[in-house]
Amino acid sequence: MEKFLLRFFGVFMVGFISTFSFPHSILPDPGKYLSPWFEKLAAWTGRHVFGLERAFEPGLISDSTGFYLHAFNAMILSLLLAAVWTRLDRKSTNDNLLRYGFIVIARYYLALQLLVYGLSKVFKWQFYMPEPNTLFTPLGYLHRDILFWSAMGVSRSYTVFSGLVEVLPALLLLFRPTRLAGGLIAAGVMTHVLALNLSFDISVKLYSAFLLLLCLFILAPDAPRLWAFFFTQQSPPAPFRSPAFRRKNLYLLAKTIAICLILTDALYPYLSSGNFNDDRAPRSPLHGAYEVMRGDSWQSWQRVFIHRKGYFITQSAEGRMQDYGLIVDTLRRKLILEQWEPAAITEISYWEDSAGFLLLEGDFFGDSLRVGLRKLPLDELPLLKPEFNWTVD
Prior knowledge:
The protein is α+β, with helices and mostly antiparallel strands and 393 residues long. It has helices at 2-18, 31-48, 65-88, 95-122, 132-135, 144-153, 156-173, 179-199, 205-219, 223-231, 248-273; strands at 288-292, 301-307, 311-316, 321-329, 334-339, 344-352, 357-364, 367-375. The chain has an eight-stranded antiparallel β-barrel with strand order 1-2-3-4-5-6-7-8.
């Protein structure tokens, strides 16, 4: 049974991580080429095995129906392959080497993902400063995931701390002597991450559960020792012994290359962009929140927001928001706006001055537009003030 379980989880782990796309900076992404085939299989499983008649997303993306179906398919295929493998290899005596190989794959993959997510927090890429439209959205209208993202985004100190808590076990997992410590810390971190994703409805639930499963797999060989240490007064059994390699120089070279690739891949986005604190990264000169000048209540606009990711967002007096795609042509001083439904593109001219006044004029999807806007000082909002108090008085 132990042979079968080892082969089952090893096949499932390798198959799962190699069949959905997770782009990296320099490391290959086999899922980019394999995922289209498994998306078709997921769609077939949804319709013919589970009888899903409603339309669903077959793509292998975060928490899509297709991604859950893919996990189910991967488990079934892994069960079949593990059963055949175990039957054909019943007399194998190299299970220790096989276990070690699967654990190394789990350690290095988990370390890579913890570094990717951890560094994105340390450098404020994941939990970025809330955009102007979010800052002016009433609290009760925010979805829980945006609320959590915004709370993290306004606290650089806690975001950096939470990132370092992920980077630490990642580094420990890269080396055999610290594997157990790294696995224990990573298990605690991923348990917390999974709880956050479930509680705030953040769409990485399945993937974070898979990463937690990798933590438990890494810790599995030491489970008897951990049980004896924490819950009994008996001497812990002998630790899991890694196989000895005859060609140590070749082993050290391969390990060094693997670690360098992992570290380079995780650090490359920040080294190439020079952005080590996204809070201070340059924004478009027009980026911000604008209030419609008194007397210019055009189409009941109350505020206009320029989003850093290329969105032009309007907010009515009732709080309803409407977004459009945006390209800023600074040479012609034009805003190129894209409407989604019905599909249309228009251009409006803009003029600005140093005092934060912005004038928009032109054809706004068939209506004549001329409106004056005043830029709002975001740093004066209570949420963005750098306040810290040791006492309440």
